[in-house]
Structures are given as structure tokens and as C-alpha cells.
Write a structure and sequence with these properties.
Blueprint lengths: L2 H11 L11 E5 L2 E4 L4 E4 L2 H4 L8 H13 L12 H12 L3 E5 L2 H20 L7 E5 L8 H4 L5 H4 L9 E4 L4 H7 L4 E6 L15 H12 L2 E5 L23 E4 L11 E5 L20 H16 L2 H17 L6 E7 L2 E6 L7 H9 L2 E2 L1 E3 L3 E4 L7 H16 L1
Parallel strand pairs: 3-13, 5-6, 5-7, 7-8, 8-9
Antiparallel strand pairs: 1-2, 2-3, 4-10, 9-10, 11-12, 12-15, 14-15
Helix pairs in contact: 3-10, 4-10, 11-13
Bound molecules: pyridoxal-5'-phosphate.
Family: Belongs to the class-III pyridoxal-phosphate-dependent aminotransferase family. OAT subfamily.
Main location: cytoplasm
GO cellular component, one term: cytoplasm
């Protein structure tokens, strides 16, 4: 079939909840993907950071195939021999004490919300149904009804109400605002260490340390949503390490499977996950042996292949190259590791036009919020690959 035929049937039979670039992909390897006509592209999005280990990573694939032949799903009604080892390896790697496995990122967020509410009632002593969770403006935590209930993006919320109560929105990057917003009924502060979907928004230096201190002082749970920033993307295993802090709950997903399979997890450093008793929360697929085998290998690849260190070094090199682009329409180039945003001024005509041109030149990028292009290639990318990319990006972004 021709690309246009794939696009037509997709448009006819699929819901239109995405507006993808018109490229129909059929194969991937490392940082590269190929379309149905054999044209090769550098993937600069990595499925929103889910394929940090590169497309079709051989070791993860082998682990997946091997496990698929042995045992895929038991449900949590029974134990399986992949779950315990994943827990232990994840805890050792992230210095956590407890793990709760789910599938999608949104489910990890939902799990955290349930756990901190219960913690609030049973440990902190908040009156029933009064628990409050503080979140930030321009957050992105997923698409379920509870999660969009505290989204500030009208596209995410319009005509989806009624919404779940119990959330309070403050400015991102403003630690004083957090201090002011906390009441006796506050149970948690949920925040992304870097706001990815909002356009790679990096908080002021010291922000993560400040919110850690405030949460400690006020006795509330600090939740970092590291579903996008975690697992090497920013040049550290977790973005919280940039400021040497540890959240009480850390949410990971996306690259936890290297893009093979939906796997997410809530990591806990405190008694919070301890409040969940048998039957109170669960998921048919959460913690299944196939997911665990994939996740165990995805983590090994990150560590043993030095992908975290590579993200730091190559990310810095990439950002320097992008900063050399001379175009007054570019407002800012910012990022950490290989999570980089190039923001254009509002009158530059939007970022989409650049993404279309980059696609023609063999780079797949996605605009976020009209004026920002996010560059987030797989962490297996080399300096030579970046040179190849900059040769193509520089003339296009200079126009
Ligand atoms: C992608 C993302 C989610 C949601 O993950 P899904 O797997 O799409 O449900 C939540 N939080 C952040 C920060 C994300 O980037």
C-alpha cells in the first residue's frame, strides 16, 4: 500500500484524537525509523521518551521473546518468578523501598493519588473526603478523568466534566506558592521535575530542594512524576538527582520497557504504599511476567550500556550546536541531557512548519504548544549522529 492509502484508512476508520505528521513508519532500529517507502528518519521524539534504549533494542527484544515463550500473564492472584526480581532491582537502582507495578503512566499517577489520599486519612489524620493534592499550572500527568481534573490545558478538559475534586493548582517553579497553598488537609504535592509536555520547562535552580524541604516541614508527601524525565532522559537516572533530592513517591513509565510494552511503576520511599491492603488496588496486567522481564532488561540496558552518561554528554553537545543557530526568531534553547526544547517567538509562525521541513530532511520532530520543538532522540545517539542531525537542522531553523 502507498503511504496515502494508509493515511486515508486511518482517517476514515480511526478517531481523530491525534494529528500526526504524515509519515507511515514500518521499521525501527536504534535512533532510526523507516517509512513504508524505505525512507530513513532520525527519531527525535523517541515516542515521548519511551524508547530511550533505541528502537527494537536487541537485548530487550530477546528477553521479551524468551519470556513470551515461557509465561506471559498470571494475574496477581498468583505469584510469578519475574516480579520479585524486578522489585529488588528497581529498589536497588533507585534507592526505593517499595514498588507497585502498573501499565500506563496515567495508571501510575492514579495509583499515587489513591495511595496518598489513603495515607492522608489513615496516617496524617485528614478528615474523610477532605484530602487535597497540590499540582502545578501547565502540568501533564495523563488523560484519565481524575488526572485531567487538574489539567490547566483547555484542550484536555473542555466538555469532559464533571471533574474530580480535591486538587489545587499553583505556579510551577514557585516554591513560596507551595508553602502558601498547603493547608491541614493537604496530603501531597505532585510535580514534574521538568515540565515536558508544557515545552521542556526547567524550574529555577534549587526548586526541587526547596519543595523537598517544604514537604518535610509541613508533613506532606512529595510525588515526582518522572514518567518522561526519568530513566536517563535528562542525563541522570532520575531528574531529581540534579538537585540531590529524593521524592517520597516517584512515578516512572515510558522507558521502563524501552518501548516494547506498557509498563509503569510507583516507587515509594516511605510508608505511603504500605497503606494499601489486599484487594484495595490492582490491575490485571500490572506486574505480569512479560512486563517484568522486559522492564528488568530495559533497566539493565540503561545502566550497562552507559546510556545515562551518554545522555548527559551528547545532550550537552547537541544543545551547544542548537545554540549556535543564528535566527532572531528563536527565543530560547534549553534542556537537560537529551530533553531539549527550542522555543520560537510567538510571531515566528509556529513550530509545525519547521517540523514539516525537518521531516523532509529526514528528522522526525514534534512541536509542542505551537511554538516549541522538542528534541529528544533515543539515548543511544552518538556525537557523529548529532553532527549529521545538526547539518540538517541548522539550515532549516536558520530560515
Ligand atoms: C506520558 C506522561 C504521562 C502519561 O503516561 P501514559 O503512559 O501516556 O498514560 C504522565 N506523566 C508524564 C510526565 C508524561 O510525560
Amino acid at each position: 500500500m502507498k503511504p496515502q492509502e494508509y493515511i486515508l484508512i486511518e482517517e476514515e476508520f480511526g478517531a481523530h484524537n491525534y494529528k500526526p505528521l504524515d509519515v507511515v513508519l514500518t521499521r525501527g532500529e536504534g535512533i532510526w525509523v523507516w517509512d513504508v517507502e524505505g525512507k530513513r528518519y532520525l527519531d527525535c521524539l523517541s515516542a515521548y521518551s519511551a524508547v530511550n534504549q533505541g528502537h527494537c533494542n536487541q537485548r530487550i527484544m530477546d528477553a521479551m521473546v524468551e519470556q513470551a515463550k515461557k509465561l506471559t500473564l498470571t494475574s496477581r492472584a498468583f505469584r510469578n518468578d519475574q516480579l520479585g526480581p524486578l522489585y529488588k532491582e528497581l529498589c536497588e537502582l533507585t534507592r526505593s523501598h517499595k514498588v507497585l507495578p502498573m501499565n500506563s503512566g496515567a495508571e501510575a499517577v492514579e495509583t499515587a493519588i489513591k495511595a496518598v489520599r489513603k495515607w492522608g486519612y489513615e496516617i496524617k489524620g485528614v478528615p474523610e473526603d477532605k484530602a487535597e493534592i497540590i499540582v502545578c499550572r501547565n502540568n501533564f500527568h495523563g488523560r484519565t478523568i481524575s488526572i485531567i481534573s487538574f489539567s490547566t490545558d483547555p484542550t484536555s478538559t473542555t466538555h469532559f466534566g464533571p471533574f474530580t475534586p480535591g486538587f489545587k493548582v499553583i505556579e510551577f517553579g514557585d516554591a513560596d506558592a507551595l508553602e502558601r497553598a498547603i493547608t491541614d488537609n493537604t496530603v501531597a504535592f505532585l510535580v514534574e521535575p521538568i515540565q515536558g509536555e508544557a515545552g521542556v520547562i526547567i524550574p529555577p535552580d534549587g526548586y526541587l530542594r526547596d519543595v523537598r524541604r517544604i514537604c518535610d516541614d509541613k508533613g506532606i508527601v512529595l510525588i515526582f512524576d518522572e514518567i518522561q524525565t526519568g530513566l536517563g532522559r535528562t542525563g541522570k537516572l532520575l531528574a531529581e538527582e540534579h538537585e540531590g533530592v529524593e521524592a517520597d513517591l516517584t512515578l516512572i513509565g515510558k522507558a521502563l520497557s524501552g518501548g516494547f510494552y506498557p509498563v509503569s511503576a510507583v516507587l515509594s520511599n516511605t510508608e505511603v504504599l504500605g497503606v494499601l491492603k489486599p484487594g484495595e488496588h490492582g490491575s490485571t496486567f500490572g506486574g505480569n511476567p512479560l512486563a517484568c522481564a522486559v522492564a528488568r532488561t530495559a533497566l539493565k540496558v540503561l545502566v550497562e550500556d552507559g546510556l545515562v552518561e551518554n545522555a548527559a554528554a551528547v545532550g550537552e553537545y547537541f544543545m551547544e550546536g542548537l545554540r549556535r543557530i543564528d535566527n532572531p526568531k528563536i527565543k530560547e534553547v534549553r534542556g537537560r541531557g537529551l530533553l531539549i526544547g527550542v522555543e520560537f517567538h510567538n510571531d515566528a509562525g509556529g513550530a509545525r512548519q519547521y517540523c514539516e521541513k525537518l521531516k523532509e530532511a529526514g528528522l522526525l520532530c514534534k512541536e509542542t504548544h505551537e511554538t516549541i520543538i522538542r528534541f529528544a532522540p533515543p539515548l543511544v545517539i552518538t556525537r557523529e549522529d548529532i553532527d549529521w542531525a545538526l547539518e540538517r537542522i541548522t539550515p532549516i531553523l536558520s530560515e
